[in-house]
């Protein structure tokens, strides 16, 4: 047993909740931001401005989300170069086969593959073959074995959402808003789930509300710890950056979730907010303002189809309140109560 511990220590394989749950998760969120999210932002700007270069650049960035996340995880685990570079293939396989659960599949499989690669690194005279071989084969094998199951589990979350759309608008608004919002923050793809289900109409509007509650909510309640940089990285980037903090203190998640439970039915019952743009926009929230642009393009499509007369002031007011104002105000109120109760302390929302 002692020899095994010494070997793991020599290989810098530290089996701990902090390294896997905090360090690896934080790095993965940054990898996702540097690929899929920034790519989505750039390509969205390109489409609205009619600039093909931006569309192409954003598409290229989004297309390497899996490798980017896997390499980020490897970096956090302090993987040696050959292991780190081999994780590119591992990330591509896991993300591709994981479907809606791609990011979660990458997270699990990249950690295992990186640690296995570290164990054999520089242990043979043909390290240039053995280390990448073990890393890639382990990652590819695990991707084939478990990534589809992870994707199926993520899609099952979508089945609950579809069930919710059959309820009355009030209850549907709550269920869809909360579930899709939670999916946005978890290491699974809320956008992929919404796209797979074709989530549009009122259900799409509720999904937008839930995503905005998470992103704007976390951005605002953590402003004291993270400043302007944190405001933008979470508000127009991703609330997944808070996952390490949620793991350490799940109570920090209460304020955004409660907010989504309120803004969802307000979106469906009062403002009748509908997402009639592309379904993927339903699961993007304020990421690059993709959700808001999706609602707007839906308005334009409805006008062209003759199902909507014009874009009214009430439309803009509803979209602004649901996307920005209510998430910010309600989250601050709930978070202030939590701070008074001692459930959230200074530093609990500090980004890594």
How would you sum up this structure, described in words?
The chain is mainly alpha-helical and 352 residues long. It has 15 helices and no strands. Helix 5 packs antiparallel against helix 6 (102-120) and helix 10 packs antiparallel against helix 13 (254-270). It is globular, with a radius of gyration of 21 Å. The chain starts with a helix and ends in an 11-residue tail after the last helix. The model has no long low-confidence stretch (mean pLDDT 90).
Please give the structural blueprint:
Elements: H1 2-10, H2 17-49, H3 52-63, H4 65-76, H5 81-98, H6 102-120, H7 127-165, H8 169-185, H9 190-197, H10 201-221, H11 223-235, H12 243-248, H13 254-270, H14 290-305, H15 313-341
Helix pairs in contact: 2-3, 2-4, 4-5, 4-6, 5-6, 5-7, 6-7, 7-8, 7-9, 8-10, 8-13, 10-11, 10-13, 10-15, 13-15
């Amino acid at each position: 047993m002692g020899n095994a511990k010494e070997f793991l220590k020599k290989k810098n394989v530290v089996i701990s909740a902090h390294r896997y749950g905090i360090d690896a998760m934080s790095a993965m969120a940054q990898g996702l931001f540097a690929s899929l999210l920034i790519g989505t932002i750039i390509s969205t700007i390109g489409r609205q401005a009619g600039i093909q270069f931006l569309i192409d650049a954003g598409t290229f960035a989004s297309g390497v989300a899996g490798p980017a996340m896997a390499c980020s995880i490897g970096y956090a685990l302090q993987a040696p170069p050959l292991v780190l570079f081999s994780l590119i293939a591992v990330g591509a396989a896991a993300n591709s086969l994981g479907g809606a659960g791609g990011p979660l599949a990458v997270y699990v499989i990249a950690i295992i593959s990186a640690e296995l690669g570290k164990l054999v690194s520089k242990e043979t005279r043909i390290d240039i073959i053995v280390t990448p071989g073990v890393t890639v084969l382990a990652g590819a094998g695990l991707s084939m074995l478990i990534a589809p199951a992870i994707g199926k589990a993520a899609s099952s979350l979508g089945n609950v959402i579809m069930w919710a759309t059959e309820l009355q608008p009030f209850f549907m608004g709550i269920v869809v808003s909360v579930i899709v919002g939670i999916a946005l923050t978890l290491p699974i793809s809320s956008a992929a789930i919404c796209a797979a289900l074709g989530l549009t109409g009122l259900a799409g509007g509720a999904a937008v509300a839930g995503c905005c509650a998470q992103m704007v909510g976390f951005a605002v309640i953590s402003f004291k710890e993270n400043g302007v940089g944190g405001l933008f990285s979470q508000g127009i980037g991703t609330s997944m950056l808070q996952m390490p903090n949620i793991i350490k203190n799940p109570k920090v998640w209460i304020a955004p979730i409660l907010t989504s439970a309120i803004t969802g039915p307000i979106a469906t019952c009062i403002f009748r907010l509908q997402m009639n743009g592309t379904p993927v926009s339903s699961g993007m929230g304020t990421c690059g303002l993709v959700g808001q642009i999706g609602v707007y393009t839906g308005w334009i499509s409805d006008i062209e189809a003759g199902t909507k007369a014009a874009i009214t002031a009430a439309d803009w007011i509803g979209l602004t309140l649901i996307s920005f104002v209510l998430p910010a105000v309600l989250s601050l109120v709930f978070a202030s109560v939590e701070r008074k109760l001692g459930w959230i302390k200074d530093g609990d929302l500090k980004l890594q």
